[in-house]
Amino acid sequence: MTSRPRLRFAPSPTGPLHLGGARTALYNWAAARALGGDFLLRIEDTDRARSTDESLRIILEGLRWLGIHWDEGPDVGGDRGPYLQTERLDIYARYAERLIAEGFAYECFATPEEVDEGRQRLQAEGKRPMYDRRHRDLSDDERAALRAERGPGSLRFRMPLDQEWTLPDLCKGDVRVNLAELDDWVMVRPDGMPTYNFACVVDDLEMGITHVVRGEEHLMNGFKQAVMFDALGATAPLYAHIPLILGKGGKKLSKREADVNILDYRAKGYLPDAVFNYITLLGWSYSGDQDVFTRDEMLAKFRIDDIGKSGSKFDEEKLRWMNGDYVRRLDRAAFVDAGRPYVGDALPAAAFDEQPGFVANVFACYQERVELLSELAERVGWVLGEGVELDEAAQKNLAKHEDAKAWLAGYADVLEASGLPASYPADRAAADAAFALPSAADRPGPDAPPCDGPAQLEASARAFCDERGIKFGHFVHPVRAALTGTNKGPGLFDCVFLLGKERAVARLRAQA
RNA sequence: GUCCCGUUCGUCUAGCCCGGCCUAGGACACCAGGUUUUCAUCCUGGUAACAGGGGUUCGAAUCCCCUACGGGAUACCA
Predict the structure, then answer these.
(1) How far is CA A460 from CA A22, A115, A361, A434, in A?
(2) I need a labelling partner for A443 at 20 to 30 A (CA). Which of A38, A268, A282, A324 fits?
């Protein structure tokens, strides 16, 4: 048992990668990395009717977005491929033959109706409804006759009858079941296509899988698979059947409560690291008092058997908070890069390339004000454009003091005479380089400023107020309203600075 | 119905394996203050939980049993 740890994520491409699948992949990946082993991706596409290339594409993209990388898989290859089950049919056929020859599998010719009828009879007797094993002990002659009459049957696994089996589960502990409770399950369909349990065992064996983390809906499959490993004279991997992710009501996640596709979170403005961190926490904890951690920190502590035993509910509010936290920690350049795809028309693409300093200053003012990157688009819009429309709160602030309009007119004159930098798209490179927003009182300005910065602007505004006997606290609100159209946002003089002289003066006069 | 798993603040959880350090800790949310020209950030404080019942023990969130509730499985789906 000194074999190298090998784990896998084995999605079936019948839909997008959802939250639960992403978490399963994440735990397998983390365990592989923490154990210093390999992580591979295998595609379980034996359900041909429901598998699509599009789903496969989306799943891979979702995993990549989360930063989960695999060492072997359908796209990157590897020594134990192919990694698509439909390309491994000959391997399954070989195993099927062997299992038949050794008496572990038998052909069953029962029609679906017959199987169902047997199930109902069992249920009526108060027993577990399952295949009634009617063709389990047919003689060779009987089998030949049925095959001649009905064509090829399905291949079933001959489960040991009336035998207790203990499955050591890394998450749940030892689970004990009488194998008589389990079906003689179908391994191969009449058309030759293997079913999940069979292909899974063959692949886990052939690919040298040592640990399997998967949803607890597979717990009973764990028994079926372990028994087959035993029949093959092999040791089953260590299983960890982890609880499902639930919705608010404790039921399965509904589409209302969570997005079905992990990539929808990207579209909504979440950072992959935040989503990664959050879903890791759904069933595992880093420590008693820290829930934000890096991947390296996680890998240093991650252990499969520390995954919780009870189901957890998805709470997007906490995810949002965590995303805000990650956004705030980004350095300025990373924040601009991350946010760029989300600003839409609020800032022209040219601005990013031609006046990165200006864009960085605009972004910087919002870094601690957004939780989702997608909020950027509407928040930042006021910085450019000919004018702004005042929202309700802004209109109120403007109307609060009867002298407000006079203040705006007067202040417009002050700004016009000031050393305020020009409005974008004029070249503001020197100004934006000199003053890194958001401005802070405890940060001194440059020694030889090329223009007025927020601090000078504030000083001149205060002087203007003193001169006219205006309370500064009263002055600030109508000015903000006229300039930005809202009553919230970055520091007022950061706003003035970003707006630049022409735009600031024009907006003040428009409301005066 | 049958089999299996689970149950600590509203939510995610720490503690449980190896009983006493638990007057049960942290985080989100919420409430109240503070900082601030607004908003946000940030800081301080607060509300709030061991599902219920029996044991075992000097002592139980921690061990055992029962009940209730929740979830999963019961497919030629994975």
Answers:
(1) 55, 88, 22, 19
(2) A324
**CB of A36 within 7 Å of some strand B atom:** no
> What pLDDT does A203 receive?
98
Same domain, A276 and A154: no
Q: Specify whether the CB–CB gap between A301 and A286 falls below 8 A.
A: yes
- Chain B positions with an atom below 7 A of a protein C-beta are 1-8, 10-15, 25-29, 37-42, 70-78
**Where does a domain end: A350, A377, A404?**
A377
In angstroms, the CA A176 to CA A193 distance is: 31
- The DSSP-derived string for A80-96 is T---BGGG-HHHHHHHH
A177 C-beta less than 7 Å away from strand B: yes
CATH of the domain at A402: 1.10.10.350
Q: Are A259 and A362 in contact (CB under 8 A)?
A: no
Cα–Cα distance, A322 to A278 (Å, whole number): 7
Statement: the CB of A244 is under 7 Å from strand B: yes
CA dihedral sign, ordered A438, A440, A443, A449: positive
Distances (CA, A) of A477 to A337, A395, A482, A496: 32, 10, 9, 13
Number of independent structural domains in chain A: 3
Output the distance from A308 CA to B51 C1' rounded to whole Å: 19
SS3 state of residue A354: helix
- Confirm if A338 and A382 have CB atoms less than 8 A apart: no
Give the per-residue pLDDT at A236.
96
Distances (CA, A) of A465 to A310, A397, A476, A488: 62, 17, 10, 21
Mean pLDDT in consecutive groups of 10 residues from the start of chain A, 512 residues: 88 94 97 97 94 95 97 95 95 96 95 90 84 92 94 95 92 93 94 96 97 96 97 96 87 76 96 98 94 96 95 95 98 96 94 96 97 96 91 90 92 95 95 92 80 94 94 94 94 96 95 88
Query: Does A442 lie in the same domain as A350?
Result: no
Q: Are A159 and A227 in contact (CB under 8 A)?
A: yes
Structural domain of residue A216, as residue ranges?
Answer: 88-242
Q: So what's the ipTM on this one?
A: 0.95
Indicate if A314 and A221 belong to the same structural domain.
no
Cα distance between residue A422 and residue A426, in whole Å: 6
